[in-house]
Amino acid sequence: MVGEQTPRYHRIADDLRGQIERGELKPGEQLPTEWVLTEQYSVSRNTVRLALRRLTEEQLIVAGQGRGSFVRKRLPRAVWDWSQLESRSKHTSDAKGDQWASIVAESGRQPRQEVTVSIRRPPAEVAQQLQLDPETALTVVRERVRLVDNEPYALADSYFPEELVRGTPLMLPEDVSAPGGVLASVGLIQSHYQDEITVRMPTRAETERLSLPTATPVAVHQRTGYDSDGRPLRVMITILPGDRHVIRYDVPAE
């Protein structure tokens, strides 16, 4: 029989998944302990662990440190139109905070950014994008943890050639903004962008800073801004957890 050929841990995972999908097990609720599940399904503890691992890999449950397994809480997804983000025609507000914060606020949610600024040599791949010598060049790095309703939603690190932004508001460790963008306000006009998007598992540091549940992949969005002469002005690398973001592009069919 097909049912008998299905591994027991698959059947246990299917049953628990159904309880989660039907709302019988609610977000944040603790699952029965491994011991209770072994008794309930008349299986070994190892079989129960395989079933729980399957649900963890499906991002339906998370394991607490020594506290058992819990139904994963789902953060509301943030939807980003990357074809308009950083468009100068869309960035005309004098409100405090950058365009990201303005978009979040317009959606009825509360944005906040934790900003640190440093001057250091860039990673090799960033130096290449900025056409800098990785051995000698310095960049101003603005590192931001972006929070929505006090939940960490993304990491955004921007790299600027130090000689271009020395003495500008971009050196300040705080939210800075200007109509059309801070770079434009100091005479550095980004005329076009080049985007690259990759997907990978997060580093340990990213997992901790973003409070990521187990097995949550992240999208890495790298945007390089160029002036009208093709000179790179900035590289921004954004880490976007896959469980809380939707990225949209509006691409003209011409």
UniProtKB/TrEMBL annotation:
Record flagged with keyword Transport: no
Any one GO molecular-function label of the UniProt entry: DNA binding
Top-rank taxon: Bacteria
InterPro entries in the record: Bact_HTH_transcr_reg (IPR050679), Chorismate_lyase_/UTRA_dom_sf (IPR028978), Tscrpt_reg_HTH_GntR (IPR000524), UTRA (IPR011663), WH-like_DNA-bd_sf (IPR036388), WH_DNA-bd_sf (IPR036390)
One Pfam family, short name: GntR
Keywords noted in UniProt: DNA-binding, Transcription, Transcription regulation
One GO biological process term: negative regulation of DNA-templated transcription
Keyword Metal-binding assigned: no
Entry protein name: GntR family transcriptional regulator
Taxonomic path: Bacteria, Bacillati, Actinomycetota, Actinomycetes, Kitasatosporales
